Amino acid sequence: MPKYKLYHFNSLTSTQDKAREFSKKGFNNIIIVAKVQTRGRGRFKRKWHSGKGGLWMSILLKPKNIENLKYLTFAASVAVVESINKTARLKTNIKWPNDVHYKCRKLCGILTEGIFGKRNYVAVGIGLNANQTAFPDEIKDAATSLRIIKHRFFDVKKIMRSIADRFFSLYEGYYVKDKPKKILKIWKSYCDTIGKEVTVTARAGTLRGKVLKVDKDCSLLLKLKNNDVIKIIEGDINVRY
After folding, report:
1. Please, what are the domains in the chain?
2. Coil, strand, or helix at residue 170?
């Protein structure tokens, strides 16, 4: 079994903030969990609604190789999908690069942040909608929870343990051993973005096309209508299912 230490809190600004604080103390291979986040955030510093009922956690690592951090996002996505299947008997999918969804509604988002200095750390944040029964108006049509889908209450600690165990097995088994392509292969088996028509909002503007593949750098290759192929390193995508 993987070795990690758990830290539980009733309320934090965000588990990512606490991970950054713990990194200054030299901690690593730890998991921080909060019942509530008062300033939870997603990618591009967007607000993440983190009230009671959800699973809000961050994994703090000190990997030797920090060049392939995107693979840690992919490893976390795989861990979430497989843990949901195991604990809730629910098949979910991954939308590139970091969302786990069920029938186009978001269940989970992942935020991987590097903490760079004399020693380099990585915080992998996972926000999973578990037992919420309602969402704010601005996201109620886009989000869902395990409880809404399955009509029952879930043991958040059990789900967290399952995610943590699977994540560390991928991290120690492949990432640490410099075999990130193994993670990518598993990730692709759960990703339903490849082959779809999408709209991408990126720094270059809004692009529309068909996703050809996700390459070895975890970037998305988009074929435009004029047959040009664009490499998307980061951005938001709207998939036409």
Report:
1. 5-190 (3.30.930.10), 197-240 (2.30.30.100)
2. helix
Rounded (to 5) percent helix, strand, coil in the chain:
30, 35, 40
| Distance between CA atoms of residues 169 and 187, nearest Å | 14
Please answer whether residues 27 and 60 qualify as being in contact, where contact means their C-beta atoms are separated by less than 8 angstroms. Answer: yes
Residue 89's contacts (CB-CB under 8 Å, 6 or more residues apart) are: none
Distance from chain centroid for Cα 52: 19
Q: Which two tokens mark 141?
A: 């049509």
The model's pTM is 0.94
For 115-161, how does the pLDDT look when each residue is reduced to its tens digit (9 = 90+)? 998 899 999 999 999 999 998 888 888 899 999 999 999 999 999 99
- Is the previous residue joined to 2 through a cis bond, with omega within 30 degrees of 0? no
> What is the bridge-based pairing of β-strands 30-37 and 5-12?
parallel
Residue 229 is encoded by which pair of tokens? 């192929």
Alpha carbon of residue 217 to chain centroid: 17
